TrEMBL record:
Top-level lineage group: Bacteria
Residue span, ABC transporter domain: 7-245, 309-542
CC per GO annotation: ATP-binding cassette (ABC) transporter complex
SUPFAM superfamilies, alphabetized: P-loop containing nucleoside triphosphate hydrolases
Name of this chain's protein: Energy-coupling factor transport system ATP-binding protein
Family classification: Belongs to the ABC transporter superfamily.
Keyword Ion transport in record: no
Subcellular location: Cell membrane
Native organism: Candidatus Hakubella thermalkaliphila
Any Pfam family matching the protein: ABC_tran
GO molecular function terms listed in the Swiss-Prot or TrEMBL record: ATP binding; ATP hydrolysis activity; ATPase-coupled transmembrane transporter activity
InterPro entries: AAA+_ATPase, ABC_transporter-like_ATP-bd, ABC_transporter-like_CS, ABC_transpr_CbiO/EcfA_su, ECF_ABC_transporter_ATP-bd, P-loop_NTPase
């Protein structure tokens, strides 16, 4: 049975006002009503611009030159108002915090319903259902500003779901969600999909994209390729061309097949398929466990030489009454690379802010290189512990990149020649030399993130804390960012990252601290923690796909390369 078209774009091009390069360049695509489609591609590929076209934000509010034809749910967006389109098209923006403005979680979800003129008694069931779908029912009376980043993202989703839109478009809706939360969003999308509701997800996560009906890859404003998830996600070279991370098990079998001279059709995509295929024709090398155990030497808390950061029985209660930390004991050694992970609202950011004095414990002691934080001045702490916020826009304020990066050293009273030298070294470290005179607010999200890192590096702190350093970055940008951070660790900096990207943790961190409901649930080497999947599930966490693959075979590889090294053919 032929279905109506939910989205019809024909030769669509768009040039943002004041720019020289087209954000969309001759894009033609169709999406049928009731389909679940995922748009993927590098940062700047045109994904968000396409989303803005769905409810006439382009061209009604976002200025620029639009050419081509665009029909959404039968309406010509060139002749439609956003206020009209928004009744049937629900958007969740990449900058989800910009959508939140009410004084309570419940009122946020009720806002759209009130604007539709729905009677109050009819709202209750819809609000309850929407909050339940995103696991926020117990936080209905909280102010949105007191929620964690992931909880705010869930709230933005709930507020749009309550409107029951015919077309729901979510622009990177899982960036701040814990791993189980990411999986739940895709399962929710599949649940919401139906003959009368079309779903479009913009996403970087390849494993979750298997849930979609179709995947569309965009590159530099053009539609590079479209097809079924099996067709697109099995092609690692195509994904890399589009700046998307290949699916780990598919990449494993593709690379192994090349090294063994075997080409046996498309690689498996799911964990179950991969395990079955492995057991048919592959096996672990006899020395696999010893090889991986040898990789653990020199990492983790057992190798530290000097205590850099320490917490003793730390409690923290916010003015709202939310108890975020409940008796934390933690010690981090100089030169360690530690990942702090946990579900949304587990206390990760609260804990990290203790180390540079942004928050002071309700009770307990926090020490930095043997000195109690409460007895150190802001200046002393700032020189010792650098903090890069989850959203770079929360710390960028200067009119040029150089002034932004130079602010810290100048504020500490360093001579101008030292300020300039420090700023240039910091910009070189993040590959931004030549950007000194640019306005940081017109840079891409990834570039602004690097400016924020450089502004902290220019002070030359001994400890660097990065809150969600890969959020909003595409695969290649994530690799660049984390290689830069790893190089700083190799030069002696103590690194702490707060992240929901389990692949980032597996590839770079030596040690993991898992928080759960304000307490330390697990604290051990990365390999040891990722081998304990049942404990991680309690904290809504899942190891990366390649790690789960190895765990089922009785070993715990942290990277694709490790898995390749311990595998051989049965023949």
């Amino acid at each position: 049975m032929k279905r109506d078209k939910a989205v019809e774009f024909e030769s669509l091009s768009f040039l943002y006002q004041g720019t020289a390069k087209k954000a969309l360049d001759d894009v033609s695509l169709e999406i049928e009503e009731g389909e679940f489609v995922t748009w993927m591609g590098h940062t700047g590929a045109g994904k968000s611009t396409l989303v803005y076209c769905l409810n006439a934000l382009i061209p009604s509010f976002i200025r620029g030159e639009l050419k081509g034809k665009a029909r959404v749910l039968g309406r010509d967006i060139l002749q439609s108002r956003t206020s009209e389109m928004s009744r049937e098209v629900g958007l969740i923006f990449q900058d989800f915090e910009a959508q939140l403005f009410s004084t309570s979680v419940e009122l946020e979800v009720a806002f759209g319903l009130e604007n539709k003129g729905m009677p109050r008694h009819q709202m209750k069931d819809i609000i309850d259902e929407s909050l339940c779908l995103v696991r926020l029912e117990e936080l209905r009376d909280r102010e949105p500003s007191t929620l964690s980043g992931g909880q705010k993202q869930r709230l933005a989703i709930a507020s749009v779901l309550a409107m029951h839109p015919r077309l729901l478009a979510m622009d990177e809706p899982t960036t701040d969600l814990d791993p189980v939360g990411k999986w739940e969003v895709f399962q929710l999308a599949r649940k919401l999909q139906g003959p009368d509701r079309t779903i479009i997800l913009v996403e970087h996560e390849t494993e979750e994209a298997l849930s979609a009906d179709r995947v569309m890859l965009l590159k530099e404003g053009r539609l590079l390729r479209e097809g079924s998830p099996e067709e697109i996600l099995s092609n690692s070279k195509l994904l890399l061309e589009a700046g998307v991370a290949p699916l780990p098990v598919a990449e494993f079998f593709s690379r192994l097949g090349e090294s063994l001279g075997q080409r046996n059709g498309p690689p498996p995509l799911t964990l179950e398929e991969a395990i079955s295929e492995f057991r048919k024709r592959l096996r672990l090398r006899p020395s696999a466990r010893q090889f991986l155990e040898g990789k653990n030497q020199g990492s983790g808390k057992g190798s530290r030489k000097k205590t850099a950061l320490k917490m003793e029985r730390v409690y923290y209660c916010y003015p709202s009454g939310v108890e975020a930390l409940k008796g934390i004991d933690l010690e981090i050694g100089e030169g360690e690379f530690v990942a702090i992970i946990g579900q949304n609202g587990s206390g990760k950011t609260t804990l990290a802010k203790m180390f540079n004095g942004l928050l002071r414990p309700t009770s307990g002691r926090v020490g930095v290189f043997g000195q109690e934080v409460g007895r150190l001045s802001r200046r002393e702490l700032g020189r010792t512990v650098g903090y890069v916020f989850q959203n770079p826009d929360h710390q960028i304020f200067a009119s040029t990149v150089f002034e932004e990066v130079a602010f810290g050293p100048r504020n500490f009273g360093l001579e101008e020649k030292v300020v300039r030298r420090n700023a240039e070294e910091a910009l070189a470290a993040v590959n931004l030399l030549g950007y000194e005179d640019q306005d940081p607010f017109i840079l891409t999200k990834g570039e602004r993130q690097r400016v924020a890192v450089a502004s902290v590096l220019a002070v030359k702190p001994q400890v660097l804390i990065l809150d969600e350093p890969t959020t909003g970055l595409d695969y290649l940008q994530q690799q660049f960012m984390m290689k830069m951070v790893a190089s700083l660790n190799q030069k002696g900096h103590t690194i702490i990252i707060i992240t929901h990207s389990m692949s980032t943790v597996a590839n770079y961190a030596h040690r993991i601290v898992v928080l759960h409901e304000g307490q330390v649930l697990v604290d051990d080497t990365t390999r040891s923690v990722f081998s304990r999947e049942i404990e991680l599930e309690r904290a809504c966490l899942r190891p990366p796909q390649i790690v789960r693959f190895g765990n089922q075979l009785g070993i715990t590889p942290l990277t694709l390369e490790e898995m390749l090294e311990v595998t051989e053919s049965k023949s």
